[in-house]
């Protein structure tokens, strides 16, 4: 039946058999999909690739073939490899940025901790240096200044 | 390549005379027959020839390299080909962007806390136990970080997907 032909058989101007390998993946309402894969791979190669796969993997294979064909038509020099290159670059940039920020966090945390420690040291010296309310000097001073007041 | 020169890998495989102006000869030398074999298997010699003819000469070398790459990927993974690698890399990019957002929020929190020193730093008595104060600080950090993360955005897909899905394979 002419009206029941898939996009592949319409494009190739042939009868679409009931067991056509293309028809589940290249429906008649999307002629561009088959046109792209045919332009890049050729119908024969696409048919071979699909036939070599189990039926439950063919839909994904057809999708990926269409995607790669689309990328190749958009970028005839690099195809989807251009995209892979861009992604690698993005990963590299993000890793560098992350390392930089983590180093900054480390530095800020260290600085913050040392400031708190310094303050605590001063705190320990100050109050413990001064005598308590009964006039008795504190013996827990960080710096032993007790001899100065003997 | 004519005369006594060896035919290129493509003409050897196709069993034809290698012309002087053979379009394949510069890119498929006879000492690497596998390179053309794999490209021919996936794309077909005729399609490769058409693709190269449509390109300026100075871009054909790169085009052949990318075709070889794609053909190898398709042979290794007949279902997904290069698209499997793209999906994996996109995932990595998303994860890294999330980590970046978290790290940037953390820096903001630390900077905010450094701009407003804790009460102990301005002459008030310190908290009685060090463990309590560090726990309070950690809790404040976590709450601030949670608030900050509310503004962190997730990555969007890098490419305009012709399959019109947010990620490559949903």
UniProtKB/TrEMBL annotation, chain A:
Keywords, sorted A to Z: Coiled coil
InterPro entries membership: LOB (IPR004883)
Residue stretches in coiled coil: 84-111
LOB domain boundaries: 4-105
Pfam families hit by this protein: LOB (PF03195)
PANTHER family: LOB DOMAIN-CONTAINING PROTEIN 23-RELATED, LOB DOMAIN-CONTAINING PROTEIN 4-RELATED
Entry similarity comment: Belongs to the LOB domain-containing protein family.
Protein name per the record: LOB domain-containing protein 23
Provenance organism: Sesamum alatum
Automatic annotation (TrEMBL), chain B:
InterPro entries linked: LOB
Pfam families per UniProt: LOB
Domain LOB: 6-107
Family indicated by similarity: Belongs to the LOB domain-containing protein family.
Protein name as annotated: LOB domain-containing protein 12
């Amino acid at each position: 039946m002419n009206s029941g032909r898939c996009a592949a058989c319409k494009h190739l101007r042939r009868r679409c058999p009931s067991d056509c390998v293309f028809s589940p993946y290249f429906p008649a309402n999307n002629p561009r999909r088959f046109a792209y894969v045919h332009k890049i791979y050729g119908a024969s190669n696409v048919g071979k690739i699909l036939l070599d796969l189990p039926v439950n993997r063919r839909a994904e294979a057809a999708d990926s073939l269409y995607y790669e064909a689309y990328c190749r038509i958009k970028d005839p020099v690099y195809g989807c490899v251009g995209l892979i290159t861009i992604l690698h670059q993005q990963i590299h940039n993000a890793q560098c940025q992350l390392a930089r920020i983590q180093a900054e966090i480390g530095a800020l945390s260290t600085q913050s901790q040392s400031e708190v420690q310094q303050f605590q040291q001063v705190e320990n010296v100050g109050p413990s240096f001064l005598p308590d309310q009964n006039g008795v000097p504190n013996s827990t001073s960080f710096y032993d200044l007790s001899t100065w007041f003997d | 390549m004519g005369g006594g020169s060896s035919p290129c890998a493509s003409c050897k495989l196709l069993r034809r005379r290698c012309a002087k102006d053979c379009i394949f000869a510069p890119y498929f030398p006879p000492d690497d027959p596998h390179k053309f074999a794999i490209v021919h298997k996936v794309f077909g010699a005729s399609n490769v020839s058409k693709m190269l003819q449509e390109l300026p000469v100075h871009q054909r070398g790169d085009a052949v390299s990318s075709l070889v790459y794609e053909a190898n990927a398709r042979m290794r993974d007949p279902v997904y080909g290069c698209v499997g690698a793209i999906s994996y890399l996109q995932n990595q990019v998303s994860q890294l962007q999330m980590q970046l957002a978290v790290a940037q929020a953390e820096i903001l929190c630390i900077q905010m806390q450094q701009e407003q020193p804790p009460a102990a730093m301005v002459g008030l008595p310190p908290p009685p136990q060090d463990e309590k104060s560090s726990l309070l600080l950690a809790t404040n950090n976590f709450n601030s970080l949670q608030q900050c993360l509310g503004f962190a955005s997730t990555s969007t897909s890098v490419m305009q997907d012709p399959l019109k899905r947010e990620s490559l394979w949903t």
